Fold Laccase.
Amino acid sequence: MTSIVWSVYTLSRSWPAVSINARCMHGVCRHGIRQIRTGWADGPEFVTQCPIRPGGSYKYRFTIQGQEGTLWWHAHSSWLRATVYGALIIRPRENKTYPFAKPSREVPVILGEWWDANPIDVIREAQRTGGGPNVSDAFTINGQPGDLYKCSNKETTAIPVKAGETALLRFINAALNHELFVTIAQHKMTVVATDASYTKPFTTSVLMLAPGQTTDVLVTMDQPPTRYYVAARAYVSGQNVAFDNTTTTAVLEYDCGCASDFGPKIQPAFPAALPAFNDTSAATAFAAGIRSPDRVKVHENVDEYLFFTVGLGLFNCKPGQLCAGPNNNTRFAASMNNVSFVFPQTDSLLHAHYYKIPGVFTTDFPAYPPVQFDYTGQNVSQALWQPVPATKLYPLRFGSVVQLVLQDTSIVTPENHPIHIHGYDFFILAEGFGNFDPKKDVEKFNYVDPPQRNTVAVPVNGWAVIQFVADNPGVWLMHCHLDVHITWGLAMAFLVEDGYGELQSLEPPPVDLPMC
């Protein structure tokens, strides 16, 4: 078995800068940190740095600007993040408060995924055969699978609470390949933030977190003092997709005020509201409830209108090669706009960009699908199933307003895709099902209080429209946060050019930047 390495970093916005030293982790990402002008500290290997060599180290230096809330860090190399991750919590500045009553306690609740095998061996075998990887054997909460698994029922994570108090639970989905429903038996949750951006408070009995997303909730302990399960299980939108059909639990454990605690002899109450694994309506309802707390600045004058398809595909196998893809002689693939992203191996994209090194990437990623088709139709032509492998970037002028349609496709299978952009937050203007219609669907745009996130769960057989301002120079990876999909090529990168002067330009690389 592989042990889980996770920890909690708590940062204050009053700190002018932060340094985190990493040793032999290949590449470590501080997921959601804007990294203004410090793309060298972003973390994904072969994008903003070369891997940290065994025995080597690299100090990540970055400044936190205008962010507070729950983010996280994780390895960004192959499937190492299956067990290497932790919370990264940014608290308000000194003498500042939360936009809600101060909670009695704060607890990070990190959802993870566990294999009874080395996860690197799991993905290497899948890459060898071209088939899908073996699914995980368990989910975890703060490193423990919980009472419903025989291996860990004596070490289930316990969250101690007191009757009448309100706790701030900071949920993080660090699972590798599963979106997750979360609920707490007999307790309501009030959502107050997602992806380190505050929201209008709304009360729910169910959360849905895609990998990479965080959700902060207030929970008032207003039930009889005993033990209650916190439970999480998979949300699976793909058709005929193998998944981990287990449920992880932690225990919300009231202090009874008596001489001895309840102990494990008291069976915790189980949630009645945990949705079925394929309950897309529950996932949709949760996403619809998230709004920014106040009016935000959304731009109606847009410089870059982009339309990216996101989905799966198939590669033909080489002659004489036996492959385990869904069709004869095929391997699984994935792409954006029919380009299956290939990570370079001789240099990082940011280093090659900064020093103008040729031959590492091209800047001709298509703004629109090369071929328009019925993206969510039942019978997409097999001629469209095979993407083109390439390392293509899309250039953006500094300060340009970008509006991007992310459109799921039904190739192989439609699926909810959590799309994450490094170095940026964005507003989600609208989401919907079917093919995006620029004439009709624009009427659904929220120009008043759209949610701000760094990871959007693009609806299965549907679309999402996001907007951001390209105000952070560098090379920024955009990818599906289901790691099996990024392994297959569901990624691209934006190249944001320098603006005018030092404050609109990428900083020089640090002296200890790992080299290939």
